[in-house]
Amino acid sequence: MSDLQFKAYRLHGGANGAPPQGRFDTLSVDELSAGDTVIKVAYAGLNYKDALAQAGRGNIVRAYPRIGGIDLSGTVVRSADPALTPGQPVVVHGFGIGVDCDGGYAELARVPHEWVLPLPAGISLRDAAVLGAAGYTAALSLHWMEHCGLTPDQGDVLVTGATGGVAGIAIDILSQRGYRVCAMSGKPGAEDYLRSLGAAEVIAPPDLSAPIKPLMSARWAGVIDSVGGSLLAHALASLRPDGVAAAFGNAGGAELPTTVIPFILRGVKLLGINANSPMPLRRALWQKLAGEYRPSRLDLIARVIEPQDLPQALAALLERSSTGRSVVRFS
Q1: Which residues are CB-contacts of 214 (< 8 A; sequence separation ≥ 6)?
Q2: What are the domain boundaries of the chain?
Q3: Residue 211 CB: number of other CB atoms within 10 A?
Q4: Could you name the CATH architecture of 5-119+297-329?
Q5: Three-class secondary structure of residue 280 per DSSP
Q6: Phi-psi category of 161—alpha, beta or left, where left has phi over 0 and alpha has psi -120 to 50?
Q7: Do the beta carbons of residue 180 and residue 200 sit within 8 Å?
Q8: Which residues fall within 8 angstroms of residue 303, CB to CB, at 6 or more apart?
Q9: Taking Cα atoms as reference points, which of 221, 240, 127, 227 lies closest to residue 167?
Q10: Count of CB atoms within 10 A of residue 4's CB?
Q11: Cis geometry, peptide bond prior to residue 86 (ω within 30 degrees of 0)
């Protein structure tokens, strides 16, 4: 097994501070990061963090060479854990794969067995990759929002950055559960796509050049936000009493120019979403993704590409010229 040769898309550190260089290398299993479980990769998702890593931005990867890809689906080749049997379909995301250790952009991956989650029945390897870290983040957001009391009869839910992978899956799940979803996007021509995912309304981002008032017209029962910055502050000021926002991104900036007023006068709640959850919560939410949170429009969200298209697709993701969720097929 250690002599088995396979292809991997690996980032190599640039000289004198230059961006890393990505190329396809032929490797053996022994050249992978440490782990006791070998997986034959079927699909791996393209995520914004992967795009940042390829461009050498955000200090994502600190040690090279590194195989990117922060999530993957595939089948077990061998494992030290007897509960993981050869051929078993599994998914892996988080735990630093593709960043601190080798990830999913390869025909084989090696990780500790504690990071491997057997796929619930009814989720294919392709759909598991389309969901991946993005789908898990969407499910985790809604899970905690509903834990805080959000229900469909309380009013509209706003989804920002709506053409992104997490947002698209969130729109799909929310609409399946009976929520009225308003999708916010600045991309021209996105309305038909977003309505096809289940959005009842599509709006452009607000003008954020003027100072944001501590409280604005109360419109949203809930907000799922991938943007952060001033847009999140605007959304918080627009939440209804006892409304809840889930925040997991900072594409619009890491600063949050808000006040305590929405929290103390309207009782709104701001939930920070960290998808690197403990394994028991992961298992529970993947079961939800196979059941009550199951999206029905993944075919509209998904785009399957081949390994040779990976560098260009990651560059497009960084430029925000893509929509939905792309996955690369390795087997």
Answers
A1: 237, 258, 259, 261, 262
A2: 5-119+297-329, 134-272
A3: 8
A4: Alpha-Beta Complex (3.90)
A5: helix
A6: left
A7: yes
A8: 322, 324, 325, 326, 327
A9: 227
A10: 13
A11: no
Per-residue pLDDT reduced to its tens digit, 177-218: 999 999 999 998 999 999 999 999 999 999 999 889 999 999
d(CA 172, CA 103): 27
Q: Please tell me the CATH superfamily of domain 134-272, with its number.
A: NAD(P)-binding Rossmann-like Domain (3.40.50.720)
Which has the closest alpha carbon to 206: 230, 175, 189?
230
Q: State the pTM of this model.
A: 0.95
Residue at 68: amino acid letter: G
Query: In sequence order, which residues have a C-beta less than 8 Å from that of residue 150 and are 6 or more positions away?
Result: 142, 157, 221, 222, 244
Q: CA-CA distance, 190 to 203, in Å (whole number)?
A: 10
Q: How far apart are CA 266 and CA 46, in angstroms?
A: 38
Q: How far apart are CA 20 and CA 7, in angstroms?
A: 19
Residue at 35: amino acid letter: G
**Strands laid side by side in the 5-12 sheet:** 21-28, 5-12, 66-67
Residue 195, number of CB atoms within 10 A of its CB: 15
* Residues β-bridged to residue 202: 183
Tokens 């955000």: give the residue: 58
Could you report the per-residue pLDDT of 128-179, keeping only the tens digit for each? 999 999 999 999 999 999 999 999 999 999 999 999 999 999 999 999 999 9
